[in-house]
Amino acid sequence: MPADFSLLRADFPVLHQTLAGGRPLVYLDNAATTHKPRAVIDALSRFYERDNSNVHRGLHALSMRATDSYGAARARVAKFINAADPAEIIFTRGTTEGVNLVAQSWCAANLKPGDVVLLTEMEHHSNLVPWQLAAHRVGATLRFVPIVGDNAELGLDLDALDRLLTPQVKIFAFTHISNTLGVTNNVADLCARARRVGALTLVDAAQSAGHEPLDVRALGCDFLVFSGHKMAGPTGIGVLYGRRALLDTLPPWQGGGGMIANVDWQESTWKPAPERFEAGTPNVADAIGLHAAMDYLDTLGRPAIAAHDGTLASCAAVALAEIPGIRLLGPRPGSPRAGLVSFALKDAHAHDVVTFADQDGIALRGGHHCNQPLMRKLGLPSTVRASFYLYNTEAEIVTLAASLRRIQKFFGGA
Amino acid sequence: MPADFSLLRADFPVLHQTLAGGRPLVYLDNAATTHKPRAVIDALSRFYERDNSNVHRGLHALSMRATDSYGAARARVAKFINAADPAEIIFTRGTTEGVNLVAQSWCAANLKPGDVVLLTEMEHHSNLVPWQLAAHRVGATLRFVPIVGDNAELGLDLDALDRLLTPQVKIFAFTHISNTLGVTNNVADLCARARRVGALTLVDAAQSAGHEPLDVRALGCDFLVFSGHKMAGPTGIGVLYGRRALLDTLPPWQGGGGMIANVDWQESTWKPAPERFEAGTPNVADAIGLHAAMDYLDTLGRPAIAAHDGTLASCAAVALAEIPGIRLLGPRPGSPRAGLVSFALKDAHAHDVVTFADQDGIALRGGHHCNQPLMRKLGLPSTVRASFYLYNTEAEIVTLAASLRRIQKFFGGA
Amino acid sequence: MSDFDDLYRDIILDHNRRPRNRRRLPTANRVVTADNPTCGDNCTVYLRVEGGRIAEISFEGSSCAISQASTSIMTSQLKGKTVAEAEAAFAKFKNVVTTGRAPEDEPEQAAFAGVHAFPARIKCATLGWHAALEALQQPDQPPPAS
Amino acid sequence: MSDFDDLYRDIILDHNRRPRNRRRLPTANRVVTADNPTCGDNCTVYLRVEGGRIAEISFEGSSCAISQASTSIMTSQLKGKTVAEAEAAFAKFKNVVTTGRAPEDEPEQAAFAGVHAFPARIKCATLGWHAALEALQQPDQPPPAS
Ligand SMILES: Cc1ncc(COP(=O)(O)O)c(C=O)c1O
Ligand SMILES: Cc1ncc(COP(=O)(O)O)c(C=O)c1O
User: Is B1 part of the contact surface with chain A (CB cutoff 8 Å)?
Assistant: First the structure.
């Protein structure tokens, strides 16, 4: 049975505060980062209070406990996304580092001048800029699957995708859920299309990993990346999944302790994955915190979380569509959408909206959402985004809608 | 007045545990990682319970608090090492990532075939392998300042250093304190010698940052790196210091959100340091935890900590020197040494020593200490290392010495 | 909402709704665009400098109310000023938005005193000023292509 | 210290102090070195395989007591065995060190049952075995250069 989501708020200490002016916190900035349940905060403290130690190289009691816990976190991630083998799980700082790792290590070993890296027009800077850096280095070309549809229902142009998927495309990197539009891409379908031309795939699951079930084998992707802090876990930890056979062919990216087999003055050899890609002391405590976050999410059930977040976002879209002068992006109000709503008010700039809403205790995000070229294409300098997670409620949407109406009046009036 | 160090043990929850067999924990693996005081653990919890939010791009209350706290942590690091400007402080995962950042970004922009990267024979793999990767990429050469002296008093060969410091040397990277030998290098002197031939310097302060005062301007280094987890701070956070004028000339290493000025489909431009080098959501919570750790250390006073750790290590060296069949590395017993002792027992392999000591509740480290080529040069497959921090006591050294005597008898007897 | 009302004074809302000098200046001999990379906002300032004085000044760009209003007010304040006078005016304005202390002799600048309670918005308030001051440092340029 | 005594049985200490077959084998036609990158230990196993059987076997290398003793015992156990028999023996040994269940018919292998309580040491106990089994899979080589 899915839990009663309104009861969950008790698990999140941060929600129980009143802001300046006595207003309760209405946190709708979950696409930027989510809050952490007590279970995650306690897992961190517990590690430092009982088991703190370096991993891998230790033979004493604490070091063995820390090594076991770190290994258990890796195995838990493998189970969380149904990877075949814990060795396919590399801990990173977050989504951004995972993309950079693949863009630098894989591209250096595999990309030749004239090759194409295919992206989409809805990528976050973190799944765009690393490919620019890597492609420029080898003289490869970046191409983009365009977004089509009117502003109220934007999506990838699949016909254009098939035309763009030439044999020159060596890797296709795309987001699962757009953090700006709230559009969900059909990952399995996109991976299958890429596979037909022999292109590898990297999926940016930053916006989906904490919201819906992920099965890397069913999706058929080669790489998948996400961030712990966007799924109720700590900051500073994230995951790169890579197919085992592929990881073992990649050269290391960073060098240092823990990733070497043998070091000589001039040359070294490497351990296999995952160690090869985890140079230096890893972020042990936060990996253990992420473990607790995955347990927390799976106790609720990710299908229930996805339903909850999607329902709230749909409600919000319907409620907001009524506000005069609003322009909603992404799926049409009434159609299914991921857990966020992005919009612009005719008379109020995004920053002014966010500052105003903040005075009502509402945390929103305004700006380009790390998606500058897309915003330019849409002809919008910026949008406001409300994004939802398991602890949000319908009452908070009512508060949001009322606040937006006052804003529209404040800036549009006179 | 320096605190009574034995009272500090109350600040470290992890120390108050009994291990299997009812023995109290004697933690002497501080060079691998140190424990965290209550103040650090609480700073992490407090952040997640009150202020948790993403930084940089937010205009709502929590985001402004998180941004302020993250900025304050950066400013605190600048003060901690007397950097001229908080913009010279880049947060990394740890020492290893800091070295990789410089080795990849600086070398790609500045190193040409035939140039020399100068290291020493006492570098940790983390300050060796990144330079191998970077030098091979551009066809530069690695050279090593040799270690001289008999096994009981090893140090850098300064005459050889001056011969090696040719105008071909573009950067000289060396450790402040050797994690294997306990030798302390004279950083200011080494930097001055390098400067004479126009070489830049990178100082690996992993083993010193938590133990003694550091003043990057007095030392005259160009880059300096260290890890939070080795100085009472959390795992997953570290620091790269770089001179401002230098940082602003470096190309970015990782791409992504937060480090860009302007992004277009094919090209982007970058923010200045430090943002340029911090792509993606940073490890906000652990930067704040590191802030608490620096405050904790400076309340005690780093000169007092250095004296405490050094005294313990000297006592340990004297006590251990009495044990039959022991071979001590590093400074002669009786001479000043950094807070660690590295040794080998004639009849017992390092692993067996560590396993035996663990049964006595003592946490030691055995192996190559991420220093394989040095161990080969010294003709030792591995050593045992006892390393001290502010919460260790003389009584623990007595326990250690007694345990080592029993080990020697156990394996040497019959 | 006292902080908020303080941030959005009537004078700011007025300049936001009806910005002064918001246009391209075909006769400009200095043009600088300033970006706020944090949010993607930008502001282009056009100047015609003659004999060390700002003969004409205008701006374009997309940005928030604080930025629009402060740039609008800046253009009306800097017209006719020398470089030194413009720098002094900016120093005064920066002081207002960082300290919150409102100068009695400058009601238009004083309207921005509320910004100091919103540190993340200080960049918005100074975006146009930065562009103008940078333009004043530059050599004369040919007029902007149309 | 019961776990510990269990780990370092007399038979292990004896083989550590006086390892059997610890030497270079000039007539070897298979040589494999296994490394434990975690600690820097290594073990080189020399085999002379004749007609599908291990005619001679020896080892060298620097490693801990567990590793020395298990390799020493391994060499005495594998001498004269076929590939299939060697693989079966290793499977049995692996079972001992991972489960701690001691086979009654193999007192020398049984001595390693205590290893299972020290998971980090399992690699030590199997280092020499891995080298030997890998060598058995290889084609014949010329004898090692001296
Ligand atoms: C001298 C030295 N340099 C570098 C490192 C690497 O530090 P980290 O593993 O925290 O990146 C260490 C510790 O492991 C060290 O002792
Ligand atoms: C779709 C998407 N990709 C990538 C990222 C970058 O994630 P992080 O900043 O945690 O590395 C984000 C969030 O900022 C995102 O929403």
Answer: no
